[in-house]
């Protein structure tokens, strides 16, 4: 139930014609109900509010002032087809999109679309990009939580900020990305003890478990060592990313070089040279090769041009100057 303060605010807002205030208190009531486990009522309330709001035409979401600087909002434009992925992951991303679009159908049967996703894998393999393409495919805003700013010396403060972010998810549907979220626990290289890091991480995962919003929550990490495997069950999907296979290296290079690729491109040595590089590093090498070619007033990237750029990436990775 709404608190006494909320009821008073609602009545005052109504008589003073303050639609903004009426709206925001109504959302607080819905969020409160969701927290008490009344997911059905919370959902109904949000639906009433959403319907009424739509009649007023689209409006920009106004973030609570405390969250400014903590959440970055954008509307990505990269489609899923731009990603080079193993079939198993692509299929699962399609399923997330499909269930999201059909969520009302699922709700009729008391089922919830998959919306809590954990992405694990080495840097540069497409975890952040996945959040971007899901937002694009679902036509949602991407809200990236600035995890490093969330962390404070005091566990209590971090918890309060997390609460605000999870309240926001109830109010404004979108994709919410906790990128490299293991940092929520604090930096292990400082004198934080491992027990404290685990406690903060656990608090975060509990927020995820309790969340009943319609938003898509994505948590990404390069560093699964800190996570207890038992936590994985709190997510609807756990996707493991990895460096590209030989076939994927080829697809990635073809995608990025696109019309710049020279005819009779010789693949064998190129693919071997990419061994150990991430998608991001190969993407970078391709763009470097294109730049070099453009600056030479040529039109095509030959295998030898790309090879130079790849060796630069390999050397950067091992800390050599080439
Ligand atoms: N699987 C992929 N397919 C195509 N491009 C990729 C892929 N992974 C990474 N990239 C390229 O590398 C860039 C950085 O990747 P990113 O998603 O930030 O990696 P991560 O978050 O896993 O560290 C992307 O913007 C994209 O240009
Ligand atoms: Mg990333």
Walk me through what this model shows.
The protein is elongated and about 75 Å long. The protein contains 13 helices and 6 strands. Helix 12 crosses helix 13 (303-318). A 6-stranded mixed sheet has the order 1-3-4-5-2-6, with helices on one face. Helix content is 52%, strand content 8%. The protein has 322 residues and is an alpha/beta fold. The chain has helices at 4-15, 19-35, 39-55, 87-101, 103-107, 127-138, 147-150, 155-171, 194-210, 246-257, 268-273, 279-295, 303-318, and strands at residues 71-74, 116-120, 142-145, 175-178, 216-221, 237-240. The chain has 3 domains: 4-55, no CATH class; 65-240, Rossmann fold, CATH 3.40.50; 246-318, Orthogonal Bundle (Helicase, Ruva Protein, domain 3). The protein binds adenosine-5'-diphosphate and magnesium ion. The site of adenosine-5'-diphosphate has 14 residues, from helix 6 and helix 12.
- The number of helical segments is 13
Number of domains: 3
Listing every helix as H and every strand as E from the N terminus to the C terminus, the arrangement reads HHHEHHEHEHHEHEEHHHH
| Name of the CATH class of the largest domain | Alpha Beta
Average pLDDT works out at: 88
Major sheet: size, sense and barrel closure? Answer: 6 strands, mixed
The count of DSSP E runs of length 2 or more, i.e. the number of strands, is 6
Q: Ions, cofactors, ligands: which are bound?
A: adenosine-5'-diphosphate, magnesium ion
Write the CATH architecture name of the largest domain.
3-Layer(aba) Sandwich
Strand numbers in spatial order across the main sheet: 1-3-4-5-2-6
As a percent range, the share of strand residues is: 5-15%
Helix content: 40-55%
- What is the straight-line distance between the termini? 67 Å
Structural classification? alpha/beta
Overall shape: elongated
Rg calculated over all Cα atoms? 23 Å
Taking pLDDT < 50 over at least 5 consecutive residues as the criterion, the unreliable ranges are: none
Supply the CATH superfamily name of the largest domain: P-loop containing nucleotide triphosphate hydrolases
Could you please say which CATH topology of the largest domain applies here?
Answer: Rossmann fold
């Amino acid at each position: 139930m709404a608190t006494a303060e909320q009821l008073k605010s609602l009545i005052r807002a109504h008589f003073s014609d303050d639609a903004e205030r009426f709206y925001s208190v109504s959302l607080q009531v819905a969020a409160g109900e969701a927290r008490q486990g009344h997911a059905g009522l919370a959902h109904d309330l949000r639906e009433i509010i959403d319907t009424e709001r739509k009649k007023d035409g689209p409006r920009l979401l106004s973030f609570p002032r405390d969250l400014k600087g903590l959440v970055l909002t954008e509307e990505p434009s990269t489609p899923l087809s731009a990603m080079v992925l193993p079939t198993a992951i692509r299929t699962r991303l399609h399923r997330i999109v499909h269930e999201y679009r059909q969520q009302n159908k699922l709700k009729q049967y008391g089922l919830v679309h998959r919306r809590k996703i954990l992405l694990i894998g080495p840097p540069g393999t497409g975890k952040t990009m996945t959040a971007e393409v899901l937002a694009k495919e679902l036509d949602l805003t991407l809200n990236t939580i600035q995890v490093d700013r969330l962390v404070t010396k005091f566990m209590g403060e971090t918890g309060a900020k997390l609460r605000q972010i999870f309240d926001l998810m109830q109010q404004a549907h979108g994709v919410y990305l906790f990128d490299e979220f293991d940092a929520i626990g604090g930096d292990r290289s400082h004198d934080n003890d491992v027990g404290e890091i685990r406690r903060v991480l656990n608090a975060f995962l509990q927020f995820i478990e309790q969340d009943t919003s319609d938003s898509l929550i994505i948590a990404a990490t390069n560093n699964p060592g800190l996570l207890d495997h038992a936590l994985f069950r709190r997510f609807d999907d756990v996707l493991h990313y990895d460096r590209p296979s030989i076939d994927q290296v080829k697809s990635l290079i073809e995608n990025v070089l696109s019309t710049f690729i020279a005819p009779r491109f010789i693949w064998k040595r190129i693919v071997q040279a990419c061994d150990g590089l991430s998608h991001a590093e190969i993407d970078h090498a391709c763009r470097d090769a294109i730049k070099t070619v453009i600056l030479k007033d040529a039109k095509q990237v030959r295998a030898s041009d790309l090879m130079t750029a790849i060796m630069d990436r390999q050397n950067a990775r091992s800390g050599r100057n080439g």
